[in-house]
């Protein structure tokens, strides 16, 4: 059986996550969504929802589905105290990780998550620039090296 893009890119993100800590457990929450994971470490539990762009170069576009919106609703009902991160895998370039709170600063909350889009752009050796619905930019750039430290130090 060959490795598909999803497995390949999830694996690369997980490898960086595993190298970032000595004590971690990962639970696959496939009953909620096929790209949702619960990560437990000594500091705190976090959830990660992977999104993948297969476009090889900047800028990368990500849209959200009704299944992802429902998955986050179910997750919050099941794990009300766990912080959620949206992990944007920008093909083979790297990982741009946003907290759910950051995500909602660039999306329109009155429209819900489904069918909203965000774009991620990165100059050579630069940080990620993230824009949401209506081209609303994130207030700060995301360093390329913030993954996985951002979820391990919560």
Describe, in plain words, how this protein is organized in 3D.
The structure is a single chain. This protein is of the alpha+beta class and 154 residues long. The protein has a single domain, classed as Trna Endonuclease, Chain: A, domain 1 (3-Layer(aba) Sandwich), CATH 3.40.1350. Helices cover 25% and strands 31% of the residues. The protein has a five-stranded mixed β-sheet. Strands 4-7-8 form a three-stranded antiparallel β-sheet, with no helix packed on it. The radius of gyration is 15 Å and the shape is globular. The mean pLDDT is 85.
Concise structural overview:
The chain has 154 residues and is an alpha+beta fold. It has helices spanning 5-19, 66-78, 100-106, 149-152; strands at 24-28, 36-41, 45-53, 60-63, 83-90, 94-99, 117-122, 128-131. Helices cover 25% and strands 31% of the residues.
User: Number of folding domains?
Assistant: 1
Largest sheet data: 5 strands, mixed
Q: Would you tell me the structural class of the helices and strands?
A: alpha+beta
The residue-averaged pLDDT reads: 85
